[in-house]
Amino acid sequence: MNARALVEYLAGLAENNNRAWFVMTKPSYDILRAEFTELVGQVIDGAAKFDPAVAGQDPKKAQFRINRDLRFSKDKSPYKTHFSAVIAPAGRKDPGSHYYFHIDQEGKLLVAGGCYMPPPDVLAKIRAYIVREPARFKRLLGARSLWSHFGAFADEGKLARPPKGFARDTPHIDYIRQKSFVVWSEEPVKGKQGAALTKAITAGFKLSLPLIRWLREATAGDARASDVAL
Asked: Does CATH place domain 3-227 in 3.30.1330?
């Protein structure tokens, strides 16, 4: 993957976010998309070495489209200014746990792992699991390599009050207020080409593995949402 060329293209797209420019530069886009597909395939292979559950994922299906969903957005810019992919056992729409990365127009590589804005039934399972297995969650909070690298959960959408059905003194209530259970980090993509870029992404994925494993336990069939109401 020629990361420098990708960043230059995305920067141009950010300045000229319209169909005419996109059509004019489509040959460049096609080359970069093919290179990114190859990168995603390498990342899947690398991640499968420590997480066999993601082995065999289709790198084309793991990617997000460049077109933005404009239905509920005031910003009518038609194109995203990053290339992104998500890797999960059940594919891109897997609601339970996933790895994610993108490269954006500012030259930043974002690497994430966890469960971002899950549907209500999945979120209910996660919250119920925290209540039912507080010791397991405490062990997750003690995973030093995870938190020393990522710092904390992303708190987008976090509730100001406990969700309905949870008392204020419920153990770990501050975490139960989360609407996502995801960690992420950013670093410059500059200087990362080929194997170095793949390694940077898979290294971040591996550091998020304790959270990924815990989420799979939480969202398994025996983690019943009915134990605790939303």
From this structure: no
Q: Are 221 and 128 in contact (CB under 8 A)?
A: no
Bin 122: left if φ > 0, else alpha if -120 < ψ < 50, else beta. Answer: alpha
What's the first-to-final CA gap in the chain, in angstroms? 44
Q: What is the pLDDT of residues 164-207, one digit of tens each?
A: 999 999 999 999 999 999 999 999 999 898 899 999 999 999 99
Could you write out the DSSP letters of every residue in 92-113? TT-SS-EEEEEEETTSEEEEEE
* DSSP code string of 187-215: EE-TT--THHHHHHHHHHHHHTHHHHHHH
Name the pTM for this structure: 0.90
CA–CA distances in Å: residue 107 to residues 49, 98, 167, 186, 193: 28, 23, 44, 10, 13
DSSP label at residue 129: H
Helix, strand or coil, per DSSP, at residue 51: coil
Compute the distance between CA of residue 93 and CA of residue 112 in angstroms, rounded to an integer: 16
To which H or E segment does residue 82 belong? strand 82-87
Rounded distance between C-alpha atoms, residue 34 and residue 81, angstroms: 17
Of 42, 45, 181, the C-alpha closest to 113 is 181
